[in-house]
Each structure stands twice: as structure tokens, then as C-alpha cells.
Amino acid sequence: MSIEQNLVKSRVKLLKESPFFGTLLLNTKYRVTEDISTAATDGDILMLNEKFMESQTPEHFRSILLHEVLHMALEHIERMKDVFNSDPLTANLAADIVVNGIIQDNRLQLPKEAITDDDLKHLSVREIYSILRQKQREDPDYLQKKYGDNGTDVNQCLQPGAGKQDGDKKSQQQQQGGEGQGKTNWKDVLNKAATIARSKNAGPIGSGMSRIFKEFLEPTINWKDLLYKYITSARTDFEGFDRRMIYQGMYLDDLGGGKIKVALFMDTSGSVDEELLSEFFAEVKFAINAFPNTEGEMWYFDTELYPEGDIRDIDRPQIKGGGGTSFSPVMKKLQQIHEEDASSRTVGIVFTDGYASMNILRPDCDVLWCISPGGVDDSYFNFGDVVRILK
Q1: Which DSSP string do the residues of 331-379 spell out, in sequence order?
Q2: Quick one: CA dihedral 146, 216, 283, 338, positive or negative?
Q3: How far apart are CA 110 and CA 104, in angstroms?
Q4: Cα→Cα distances 104→101, 146, 191, 333, Å
């Protein structure tokens, strides 16, 4: 049976048994080419090596197709474009853990060499990448120890720019599938697939539809920008008109206003990526120094608080403490700071993995939970705002 016939057969079978995945495949452009040795994607075109694909069992043929299509639908190349040049191996590995986890959860058979990780598969591709990078800094041989030879010889199926035709006559003649030749709008395709699956009561199982959409809709907001805006937002709040300008008939906002007190708390109980911790601290310090009337203090914490002093006087954070974690002393300190000077705006920033009880006092001030890679889900926090700190 030819590769084209197998593709049609796979589409029909998936549309019948799993309409969601079948619809994704139906909207995928593909090319049969000898430019690659197995299967790959540039984010827009599914590229298949004919000999490799024809050597697969029907089950593996379908899972390989779905593996690449999910990379495309979840826009992994776009999401990881900033790290592909410097570390394509880890970027591919992180993305493979996501898509293979989805395939595995939906009871489709993966080839034996497929990379899987039940501890990480529920996380976003960026978060998995951050965790893998941290593990490699701690142990350069981590990938091989964790995933065997496949961890250092993973098929790098995400290949930015590889889909551009370069005169390969066979490749050019066999680009097919999808709706037209323009760039696929995967958000529309995912919504269409979800609608069809719901109408037939046959959505993805295991991780569920929500995990697929969470991965795709993962905010691409730079955490540094969000952190900066959170700390300095009060400086742009309207506080009346600038009286110096009223006599000239100019009614301009007065941005002078009250003082901002930043209270920074660093969780030292878990496995902390010191490089990421230093980068995070530098961004907080920069925001505090950016505006007048803004000051900040820092504490380390586990089950107790360890005062470190004025943030502007600290060059680089030095880890102190260890052991368990409790947010209770953190929230009590925040409430105390707020009550001591109610005329100032208190901003609490907590860098943590989140593994501690939320049965705690809710302070009368803003709280920003900054979650390190591998930390709890955003929904765990019952108050405050949440941002994930990733490399």
C-alpha cells in the first residue's frame, strides 16, 4: 500500500474513532520527500520519508502522523523559536514530551523509541524546557540517564525552515492536503476540531481537551514585562490633576502620588535554579529602581522568614534556609507591612514552586505569585495574580 493510500486510511480511521485528531489531520498539508530520514515538520508542512513511513505498522503510522500534526497544531516551532539555534535537542525533547503524552493518554500506540515522561507531560512546552535545562546544569548527563540513548539522540523532528521547497522534484509534486496553500490558522482548526468532537461526544480523553487548549493558548507574555508592569502600575494610576498645570488651562494627570512598598519573598525549600533566581531578582531590582518613591525589602523563607534587607543593596541573592514550606509567615508579614503604613501601596511578590498549604491569611494588599518551573498549577492559588517564571 502506498504512503498516500495509508494517509487516506489513517484519516478515515481517526475521523471515525477520534474526530478531534482526525480533523486536525484532515487540515494538514504534507509533503513526501527524501530530504528527511523519518518524519518532521517546519510548523506548516508535514514532511514524510516514504521508505520510513512504509516500514511502520498501521498503529505506529497513525501515531507518527499525529505526533507531527500536534507539533504543528500547538505551534511548537513558533513557541520555541528563540531557543532552537542554541539548543535544538532540548527544545525538541520538551515538545516531544508534550505531544507523546497526549497521544499516550488517548490510548494510541507509540513507537518504542518515543520519548515520554509522566512527571512532566502535563506541563507546557516552555516549562518542560526550563526544567530540562535546569537538570542539565545540575548534571550534564541527565538526559541520557533519564531517557537512555534516546535522550541524546532524539529525532529532531521540529525543523524550522525545512519545509521550503528547494527544487526536489519529487517533493514539489507531492505536496498535498490541508485547505489551500496559505499558512494554516491552527487556532481555527483546533476550534473546528473541538466542535466536531463535542457534537459526536468523542473528544480527547486522558489529559482531556483542556490540556490541549491550555498548551496552545499558553500566554506568550514575557514574564519580565508583566513583573515590571505589576510593580510600577501604581505610578500610572490616575491620582487627580497636576495642580501646577491647571492655571495654564492644562488638565494633566498627576502621576506623583504615594509610595510603593515591594515585599519580595524567595522560597528556598525546593530545588532552585540559581541562574533563573538571579535573573528574576535582577528584574525586580530594576523595576524598583525605575521609579521614585518605590522601595523594596527581601526575605527568604521556608517555614520561617529570613530577612535579607533593602533590595537595592543586594547584588545577587544567596540562598538561605531549606526544608519545608509555609506561606503563613509570608502573609502575616505582608499584612503587617500594609497596616504599618496604609498610605503606601504594598505589593507582595512571592517566588515559589507553590507546594504548600493555601489555608492561610489573605492580606489586604496585592500579591503576585511567581511560579518556578515544575510548580503547581495556576488554579491552585485562591487569591492574588499568578505568573510562571520560565527560561
Answers
A1: HHHHHHHHHHTTTSEEEEEEEE---S---S---SSEEEEEEPTT---GG
A2: negative
A3: 7
A4: 5, 19, 22, 45
Distance CA 182, CA 117 (A): 35
Tens digit of pLDDT at every position of the chain (391 positions):
789 889 999 999 998 888 889 999 999 999 999 999 999 999 999 999 999 999 999 999 999 999 999 999 998 998 888 888 889 899 999 999 999 999 988 888 999 889 999 999 888 888 899 899 989 988 999 998 998 866 666 666 777 766 555 444 344 334 455 544 578 888 888 888 888 887 777 666 544 456 566 656 555 557 788 888 787 765 444 444 444 444 555 544 444 456 889 999 999 876 667 778 888 999 999 888 887 788 999 999 989 999 999 999 998 887 766 678 899 999 999 999 999 987 788 999 999 989 999 999 999 999 999 998 888 888 899 999 998 888 7
Delimiting residues of CATH 3.40.50.410 domain(s) in the chain: 223-388
Distance CA 137, CA 33 (A): 37
Q: What's the CA gap between 371 and 354, in Å, rounded?
A: 7
Helix, strand, coil content of the chain in percent (nearest 5) = 45, 15, 40
CATH number of 223-388: 3.40.50.410
